[in-house]
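Assess this:
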Amino acid sequence: MDRVFRILGVIGLMAAITYMVRLLPVNSTTVALTFLLAVLGVAAQWGLVEALIAAFVGALSFNFYFLPPVGTLTIGDPENWVALLAFLVTAIVASQLSTSARKRAVEALDRQHEMERLYEFSRMLMLADAHKSLAGEVPSRVVQALGADAAAFFDRDSGRVFRAGASEALVPDSKLKDIALQGTVVYDAEARSFLMPVSLGGHVRGSLAIVGGSVSETAAHALANLVAITLEREAARESAALAEAAQESEKLKSTLLDALAHEFKTPLTSIKAAATALLSESPQSNSHRELLTVVEEESDRLSDLVTEAIQMARIEAGKLQLHRQPVSAATVVDSALRKFKDRAQDRRVTVQIDTSMPPVEADEELISLVLQQLVDNALKYSPPDSPLTISAREEDGSIVISVADQGPGVPEHEQARIFDKFYRGDLNRQSIAGTGMGLTIAREIVKAHGGRIWLHSRPGQGATFSFSLPLAAVEAGA
């Protein structure tokens, strides 16, 4: 109906112009320009259809009233045919150009409005209440920022559907879930609705439905991307907060463990000294000597456990400090074996180390602790009468030190977890004492030195633990 009124208005405008120019003493060129300006005005104001009608009405009026013979639609002079045709072509082309420019201006304005709405939407999401579910806030923000009739968001992580807006424009839950599953975009022109997946980097977070409002397909996709980015940012923020809290908790735990372990060290040292002193005194009864021996051995074992706890606490708190210096593999092995002098006196321990090998760059005390853990492990898990072999070899710019036993070996399904904290094998968990921290400490110390540690074992054929250490740098002129 509006177009009908506009067409009648165009005809009336051209009739009014015709009436006015007939009253004035003007030539045909001025009349043609006047009609042409009217056509341009109509094109700029109303559009192409109205401008074309204005052009044809103007051409008819120009022919009938201003080209001889006046009062007829015939043209006597061929030059007037050219003039009429030029007027008509100029009017049509000018109206098309004017309409095109007007359309582009309207599109630019629409894009500007869409950008403003998208900015407002992103600002709303950024300022959303941190104590509320961000996914639950999305539909209401869409309706508020875009002026949509209704909006719905399916959050795949929680499996919930959040809605806002008119109830009669609701999109079924099943349809939203299908869109998230299939990853397709559905546009219903009649209902003016968009249904699209919300995804980022291939990870689908859910699906979004927008019903009503003036939203282009490009803006709808941009809005879905904004939702995905905001949800991903929120998830990353929550993960970072949880990680930070866990890290702080771990640091606190490690600090307390370190302090507690140090507190145990002093009384254990006193107990050990007292037991040793009593054992070295005048002859005692066998029962007393046996009890003192138990006290001495158990205090050693407790001291080892406390040392492990201290090292683990330092490792977890990131306080493991290395005092590197050139040291030979033979020196490290001798230092480690001194600790097992009594325990290994009935064992045949073979050391295969070429003393001419270059030194490694390492903290002697910590690497000795690594070897102690591996030797202790071999002594525990191999038969009392079986031999141990400790060897070292140079390989690819590093020294590889190995401890091999002839025990039952490590089952294949346990080998991947053997260096995990607190992990102990299924078979000897109850019968052999230990905390499951020793191999973990060894791994972290070797890793801190820039080396690696590994296990080679076959059931029934023993186990060989090996670790590598980088060679010490050779000084210039050395």
